[in-house]
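Collaborator request, handled under Task 6.
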Amino acid sequence: MSVVPHVLSSSAAVKLQAPVDMLDKLCALYAEYSRVDRDPLEGRIETPYGKARLLVAGDVLSLDVEADDETSLAYVRMILADNILDIAGSEKPHLSWNGDGLSGTTLPYFREMRVVSARDLTPHMRRVTLRGDDIARFATGGLHIRLLFAPEGRAPKWPSMGRDGRPVWPNGEDALIARVYTIRNIDVAHGEVDIDMVVHPGGNTPGATWALNTKPGDIVGMTGPGGGGVEEAPQYLLVGDETALPAIGRILETLPAHAKAKVILEIDSLADQQDFPTSATIDYRWEFRNGAAAGTTGKLAEIVRELDAATLSPDTFVWAGCEFSDFKAIRSYLRKERKHDREKHLVVAYWRRGFDGDNARRDD
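Structure tokens returned to the collaborator:
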């Protein structure tokens, strides 16, 4: 007898001045990375986390969402609420969810973690091992997490769940700093994760400073997981600078023996090179900056443009994580010049010179 999966759901109704216009903009936005089916007054969206049905009736936009677990349901609600409230701007409509996963104020995708150890892997990469409870959900559904750093000398106050589906963050003296990282390794049985963090001694960056100074027993918040993986394909092209090494290393470990991958990596010098266990057949190309500032060479985009048709064939899945300038150049080349299927590439900005945190990923 087959087991019917338990689906969680939530709903909300939002009164708007122009609900059809909102539906148009939401469907266009989601079409960038999700499957969208559209009728004049209805939109059906299928995201990596769950599904949403949007229906206009009069001046009301009804929202019905569903997902397989609390974390995924919370993501669908949060992303939809973020988009609606961002598009609405000064209108500031009221949004309050009903349904599953709303019985408490704790974020289902949050864990408090303690530092177990920290050690250098290379001159510019430090591995921090964290331990926490109930981390099985972090083993699936994405490579990335956010680490939440509390102000030095203050007991942390962690975010809570708002009725609109978005997290409510502490502010003022308790404001947290959040940075995105990749889970390099996860040991669910022992409740441990390894986070590999790029460090630049002497630099004034919150994550790197924390990694260089943290000690066993220190507390940090962690939310996630989300995003960053690859789809099944006969061959892969993986491109990145040192910030992408943890993700590329984890991707390579998951590739099957019959897979082939071309891996192009830009790092400072030979001392920053790493070995990545994998069963797949890998062709590496390491590019060394030799003292040039990270994010200034443009080499990654240049190399991608020079690849032959066999390496960048229509059935190649392309994954790239790098500085914003290379990100824009690579994505533009794949989409506008090569017409590479959008379902067969994921190109992201991991950082941006002169910008911090999530500002690095704003595509302006």
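The cover message to the collaborator said: "The longest strand covers residues 110-122. The chain has a mean pLDDT of 94. Please let us know whether this matches your experimental observations."
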